[in-house]
């Protein structure tokens, strides 16, 4: 009887190991900016002007589709990304959006950017958080360029070039 129970348990565990699919990924970056939160928030909440502080983007086009606000980003690499604004919370200085489709190697990407007050009136802290999956949602073998490492690298690069550009824009504007 013990052998049967152990066999059933091992079969159950082995099936779960191979049936889980991709793990959720998360990137979170924070930068301190020597500018008032209101000034920084004014830049971030302008959903149609992302190209002003994202060096990987050459153009941003806003359009309304029913209740949705969409922005189409043209990337320096030549690709396009379509994003949907999920919400702007003026009081919390928080903007939420998602990627619907495009030339970024991620799936189910949801993000928010929040501006917080720094220790002095002319200091801000900006935190950008993205949650997403790799493109390939099935179990291994995973095609090249559709894995977790590629997805993480792409999102980290987006944040790593944009946040210093935001800082520079806010501090010199």
Automatic annotation (TrEMBL):
InterPro entries recorded: Polyketide_cyclase/dehydratase, START-like_dom_sf
Pfam families attached to this UniProt entry: Polyketide_cyc2 (PF10604)
Keywords: Signal
Signal peptide: 1-19
SUPFAM superfamilies registered for this protein in UniProt: Bet v1-like
Name of the protein in its database record: MxaD
Species, as recorded: Candidatus Methylopumilus planktonicus
């Amino acid at each position: 009887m013990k052998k049967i129970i152990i066999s059933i348990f091992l079969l159950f565990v082995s099936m779960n190991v191979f049936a889980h699919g991709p793990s959720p990924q998360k990137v979170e970056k924070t930068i301190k900016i020597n500018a008032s939160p209101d000034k920084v928030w004014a830049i971030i909440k302008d959903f149609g002007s992302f190209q002003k502080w994202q060096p990987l983007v050459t153009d941003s086009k806003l359009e309304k589709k029913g209740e949705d606000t969409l922005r189409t980003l043209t990337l320096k690499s030549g690709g396009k990304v379509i994003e949907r604004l999920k919400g702007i919370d003026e009081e919390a200085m928080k903007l939420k959006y998602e990627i619907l489709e495009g030339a970024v190697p991620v799936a189910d990407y949801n993000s928010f950017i929040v501006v917080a007050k720094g220790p002095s009136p002319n200091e801000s802290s900006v935190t950008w958080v993205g949650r997403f999956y790799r493109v390939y949602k099935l179990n291994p073998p995973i095609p090249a360029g559709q894995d977790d490492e590629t997805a993480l690298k792409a999102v980290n690069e987006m944040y790593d070039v944009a946040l210093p550009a935001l800082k520079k824009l806010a501090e010199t504007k």
